[in-house]
Amino acid sequence: MQISAIICTHNRDNYLGAAIDSLLGQDFPGEFEVIVVDNGSSDRTREVTEERANDPRLKYIFEPVLGLSVARNTGAKTAKSEIIAYLDDDAVASPSWLQVLYDAYQNNQQLAIAGGKVTLLWPPNIEPPKWLSPGLAGNLGAYDLGDSVVYIDQPGLTPRGLNYSIRRQFLTEIGGFDPQLGRVGKNLLSNEELQMTELALKKGWQVAYLPAALVAHNVAPERINRSWFLNRGWWQGISECYREQLAGNAGVAQFGRGGERFVRGLYKAVQYSVNDPAQSFDNLVYTYGQIGYLNAVIQGILFKK
């Protein structure tokens, strides 16, 4: 088995079939497998997968413990290849996706993580709202560092988890994805990919952006409103606090960092309010995220064991 493609899914049966089909239809001449990790779904996830069970490359696993990082680790344990590629359940991979990823790892033995460009698929008859900045589009999964290969040296530029691959040797070395980060059910915890990139760079591995490894990501209709982005910003702040705690950077100093970012974000939200409403809302979301961050800091200090 040359590469393993994994879809971790939770109650997304309306998108899942297209994601699976995009993998089974890959232009990849070698041996590959597609693993669907059903993370505690209560919809038709199993039925959607079993409708395609006549393809021997497809496998179904049920993981009852909720959590994207848990599901990713379960998929990796089942996978038979050295290269593991993760596609979100509401995304569609381009036909050459697996080939581009596979070639990158074969040509660079120091490559630990790689991901590609992500475009957005908007629902029928819906246009991107005017208040959506390019930065906030990233919260919907958009990811574009250009048309050339880029080796990432800043964790903040790490590939999106919906279009993501990793070398098993590195994943084993660090003990898998940390279950304290990453989405759990409907909450919006994140930062697990950022943490992985930090670890990879510290250990001398490389992380790459591969523009030809293209994936399109569906924008769910319920996400096209300001309240969703504010909630996403809140959870981003909490995720950042957790990531700092895991890295040993927690404590009173977090109040200073969060407070400074809050003031800066609020200032920019007001500054852009007249001439650039989209950028103003972007900074408002960032500011709201710092409230989530500071709330998590307080919780961490009060309930520290």
Considering the chains and any ligands shown, give keywords for the structure.
10 helices; alpha/beta; 42% helix; Spore Coat Polysaccharide Biosynthesis Protein SpsA, Chain A; 2 domains; 305 residues; single chain
Description:
This protein is α/β, with parallel strands linked by helices. It has two domains: 3-223, Spore Coat Polysaccharide Biosynthesis Protein SpsA, Chain A; 226-302. The chain has ten helices and nine strands. Strands 1, 2, 3, 4, 5, 6, 7, 8 and 9 form a nine-stranded mixed beta sheet that branches. Helix 8 (226-246) packs across helix 10 (277-302). The chain is globular, with a radius of gyration of 19 Å.
The tally of structural domains comes to: 2
**Proportion of residues in helical segments:** 40-55%
CATH class of the largest domain: Alpha Beta
Poorly predicted tracts of residues: none
How is the CATH topology of the largest domain named? Spore Coat Polysaccharide Biosynthesis Protein SpsA, Chain A
Give the count of helical stretches.
10
Mean pLDDT: 92
Largest sheet: 9 strands, mixed
The total of beta strands comes to 9
Which band does the percent of strand residues land in? Answer: 15-25%
Distance between the termini: 45 Å
Which architecture of the largest domain would the CATH scheme give at its second level?
Answer: Alpha-Beta Complex
Order of helices and strands: EHEHEHEEHEHEEHHEHHH
Query: What is the structural class?
Result: alpha/beta
> Could you give me the name of the CATH homologous superfamily of the largest domain?
Spore Coat Polysaccharide Biosynthesis Protein SpsA, Chain A
Which term fits the overall shape? globular
